[in-house]
Amino acid sequence: MLIEIDFNSNEALYIQLRNQIILGIAKDMLRDGDSLPSVRQMANELGVNMHTVNKAYALLRQDGYVKLDRRNGAVISVSMENKSHHVENIHSNMEMIVAQAVCKNITLEEMQKLVEDMYDTFSSARPQIDIIVEEKE
Amino acid sequence: MLIEIDFNSNEALYIQLRNQIILGIAKDMLRDGDSLPSVRQMANELGVNMHTVNKAYALLRQDGYVKLDRRNGAVISVSMENKSHHVENIHSNMEMIVAQAVCKNITLEEMQKLVEDMYDTFSSARPQIDIIVEEKE
DNA sequence: CTTCTGTTATAGCATAGATATAACAGAAGA
DNA sequence: TCTTCTGTTATATCTATGCTATAACAGAAG
Fold first, then answer.
1. Does residue B92 contact residue A16 with C-beta atoms inside 8 Å?
2. Nearest CA to CA, how far is B80 from chain A (Å)?
3. Angstrom distance (rounded) from CA B38 to CA B43
4. Range with the lowest mean pLDDT among A62-76, A123-137, B9-23?
5. Do B102 and A65 touch (CB under 8 A)?
6. Cβ contact (<8 Å) for A97 and B93?
7. Secondary structure (H, E, C), A28-97
8. Contacts of B94 in chain A (CB under 8 A)
9. Per CA to C1' distance, which residue is closest to C8?
10. pLDDT tens sequence across A18-53
């Protein structure tokens, strides 16, 4: 998987790396069990310092996206615990976006479509747990 | 309108102030034509430096939320220009949120409801252009 | 003429981001 | 056992950002 870092971005390098990996998981380019390059190897590939990568990995572990151990390095392992915590997090992050949309007269329908399209983009290649829909009789 | 600043937050003070004002507009607590306290007065009220407030005001002007001039201070004036630019901005901001939601198995329906509820919260007190709903016969 | 406004300039201080170098403990393989 | 890899921790240095402080300027209002 290709990870691109923009050194001219105002976003911190370790945040960019973390985001790229989360996007990779969402797009199913990184799956449970996949190994990420070691902190030193990834740092060498990206041309950044080891500690910058370590910071990103530590953040990913903290948020339940990878598990780290000394033998296997960083392994993708998305935790489904603390879902309510994540919903809260998403809620607060979403608040400013929706507030801006309301101010700028962007309709709810436009926002809904934006979310739906983006959802499709991510989940189109992902294995769905609930493809089978039970119909009420 | 009450503006609260958290000095212990890791979010920059001028960003907090900017966000609070955008939220105020979204909640219709600040309306077109309303004047904001001058940079010095606002700084005094919040207990922050004048330049911190000036930074927030300059940012709000840049994003089309207020107009600044020497006689009237900062006046709420939401610009509807550059809508495509704002949609792009919202799109990129939303991408990481939706990516996280997909990773954490938060369904599209849950996200849609989140957006809808939040939209209602903001727009409930706002003047609606399309309150009248035509019913099909 | 005084007082308010936004605006700009300069300086100092603290924190965060990124780098560099180094070392440690644990696990794997020769 | 020895080497090599892993994540982890500890310092130190440099730069950029955030915040404050003090000061000054131009324009508008009373």
1. no
2. 6
3. 8
4. A123-137
5. no
6. yes
7. CCCCCCCEECCHHHHHHHHCCCHHHHHHHHHHHHHCCCEEEECCCEEEECCCCCCHHHHHHHHHHHHHHH
8. 97, 114-115, 118
9. B51
10. 999 999 999 999 999 999 999 999 999 999 999 999
Which of A19, A26, A64 shows the shortest C-beta gap to B102? A26
Q: Which residue has the tokens 């990913």?
A: A60
DSSP per-residue letters across B33-63: TPEEPPHHHHHHHHTS-HHHHHHHHHHHHHT
Q: Which residues in chain B touch residue A101, judged by CB atoms under 8 angstroms apart?
A: 86, 90, 119
Q: Which CATH architecture describes the domain B2-135?
A: Orthogonal Bundle (1.10)
Please tell me the distance from the alpha carbon of residue B78 to that of residue B72, in angstroms, as a whole number: 16
Strand C positions closer than 7 A to protein CB: 4-10, 16-22, 25-28
